[in-house]
Fold this protein.
Amino acid sequence: MIRKRMFKIIALLIVAGWAHDNVYAQGACVILDVPWISQGIPSAQTANSMACGPASLLMAVSYLRGFVPYEQDLKDQIDWLTENKLISSKNNYLLVKGEGTSTSDLIATAKYFYGLWNIRKTNVNDVEMLRSALLQGSPVVVGIRTRMGFLIKRVKN
């Protein structure tokens, strides 16, 4: 089990390193000034939190809308997810281990909670698509699953 996990971590680092080198080789060093917020509420709880998806979406939305994200913004989003039965329990805003949020949950949140109707999900390892989106000023939320699957969500206003 430990060897398998270590292999996945090494493979992820190799893929991340390749993507990093490939992006730089194409002259695509694009950095958006996206505000950061901890996924943990309170922020000391980050290691135990399963709210990485909602926090990532909040950062992308705050970039697009030009506001500074606060802990209450993340709480409001998690409350909405719970009220709309997209997650079953918020466990004091840490979400339930093993449940978290799915891509469908985040897309629904982007559309119905934030009013971002022009959002799409792409399951491709496409560095050019990432570069293009970033060059257009569109933040991209990339979810990396433990089984080495990549979920890319392009968020546009």
